[in-house]
Amino acid sequence: MDSPARRLSIYIGESDRWEGRPLYEAIVQKTRELGLAGATVFKGVQGFGAHSKVRSLRLLELSQDLPIKIEIIDHPDQIERLLPFVETTVQEGLVVLEEVEMFLYRHGRKEGGAGC
To answer: Is residue 83's pLDDT more than 70?
Structure first.
């Protein structure tokens, strides 16, 4: 594949909302609506941001605002289509854009095998 691409990483909190629902769900839905290749949401077990308040997942103190990372990789023009939505919806957090090179991207199912 060896194609230039862009990685969009969005770091927010689990409690962040957009129009009454989790912000990470709204971003993934918008990514799908725009026809981007895909998005993945990662839930952190510990982290801190601009306010330096540590959020962590511990048995005795379950945080309601764990760190969330949304990662989207696609062609630069596709990522550009999503940026206005991200700029509008992310009220607090970090957004990182990186140039990357796609080495391998497979999708679909093969006869008799499990797909990606």
So the answer is: yes
